[in-house]
Amino acid sequence: MGSPPADGQITFVVAGRLYAVSSDGAVQCLADLGGRSPTWLSWSPDGDEVLIGPDALLRADGTISATGYFADNTNVRWSAPTGKALLAPKATTGQLIWRNAHDSNDRIDVSFADGITSAAYHPAGKHIVAAGIGRDGLGPGVFVASNRGANAQRIGALEPGTTATEVAFDMSGDSMVFVHRHADGGSHLHRFHFASPTQGTLGYLETLADLPDVTPTHLVVSSVDEGDVAWTQAYSPANASTIVMLGGSTTTVSADSPEPDHIAESLGWLPGHRLLISSRSADPSAGAAFNLWEWSPTGMRSVLDGVSAAATRTMHGQYHEMTTVLGSGFG
Fold first, then answer.
1. 145 with 127: CB under 8 angstroms?
2. Which residues, at least 6 apart from 288, have a Cβ–Cβ distance to it below 8 Å?
3. Using one digit for the tens of pLDDT, what is the confidence trace for 226-243?
4. Domains of the chain
5. Angle at 74 between CA 20 and CA 225, to 5 degrees
6. Which stretches of 222-261 are assigned E, i.e. beta strand?
7. Beta carbons of 87 and 119 less than 8 angstroms apart
8. What is the 3-state secondary structure (H, E, C) of 144-173?
């Protein structure tokens, strides 16, 4: 499939084939998926391989292999920086399972908390952040550990009965974003800034958004433009909005679907502060296919109608090594 262009590509599935469209409008068929019609895509950090559903991997040579994860486990994430492995919590137990991307039988339990709901690799690949129940007796929280689950440290404590979900690192790896879901139905969107060892602290927490009535979903943090964050706010199954925050600003902008009676969901970022969103009919009888739009600070443009899955394909931008020094912890 080759490498993605410098300005990225929008990829999508139609009728069992994987396509890519570049910023100049050129469309190419990347692969025939052999009868598969996935509803979820996720590209590796260097853009040469793609998950066509959580349970199947389309390799660079065009072959398809099983990942070992269940087809409904959309918490599967690529390892960093090259995507040699996959990572996901088990829905039944919350164990964090690492698997070799090309050999699903090569697997390790790298749990460093219990009941893990979401996890992500730092861009440099030497650390993992996960949300779950701490083994230090202090309840739920967000934790950082080595890429094998050792020397875990708590980023922050969460009140009992709450959970943290959808953790994601920014491009540089200097901070990470996560959703804090409260027992009363509201949420906060937080950014944790990692400090250098000379500062004598692990880091500090910033609140990006206070959302008393909704829980954000589809959290996407840009890996090509520092500080860009987007999420979807669903007030009901038929009423969802995509919210954009650019360059570390706490000012939000709406990126709603311009189509009447459609709901917008954030899918991924492209270079130049461009956001891919899905526009799906709010009418359940309309079927599972959706339309694609690209949002940018200058406006919204239609990309394509009637796709079953879509994702952005980019090369990861410049990142830093994590300078946090992990202690003995409790992992």
1. yes
2. 39, 308
3. 999 999 998 776 778 899
4. 65-313 (2.120.10.30)
5. 55
6. 229-236, 239-245, 252-254
7. yes
8. EEECCCCCCEEEEECCCCCEEEEEEECCCC
